[in-house]
Amino acid sequence: MSKVLVLIPSRMSAQRLPGKPLLEINNIPIISHVFNRGLETKLGEVVVCAEDQEIVTAVEKNKGKAILTGKHHKNGTERIYEGLQKLKIQDVSHVISLQGDEPAINPEDIKTLY
Q1: Which residue(s) pair with 97 in the sheet?
Q2: Confidence category of residue 61, pLDDT binned at 50, 70, 90
Q3: Which of 29, 80, 88, 99 is most solvent-facing, going by the fewest CB within 10 Å?
Q4: What letters, b where the CB count within 10 A reaches 16 and e where it falls short, cover 21-40?
Q5: Residue 104: phi, psi to the nearest 5?
Q6: CA distances to 20, 46, 58, 93 from 3, in Å
């Protein structure tokens, strides 16, 4: 049986809209909405990989799982790779990188990637 891991890269220093992950929709941060969309797929474990402690704290406050990654990454793929290394989860067959700024993404669309 294959093991799927959904990882969500996130950072506060976006060029176009700094602080975007913590902007709220219905009193819930955007990053937590994205985390919940990942859970709704029921594909596997969902983890936010964030370079900012504020994001980790917000995700955990909303009952999600997040880890802190370095600030040196050039892109989300590098952040995902560090997160995968830090998590040390064995036997992962698929890693889905879910963009942290898509709070309205349809979980069924995510499932088509698998």
Answers
A1: 7
A2: very high
A3: 88
A4: bbeeeeeebbbbbbbbbbbe
A5: -105, 10
A6: 30, 12, 27, 5
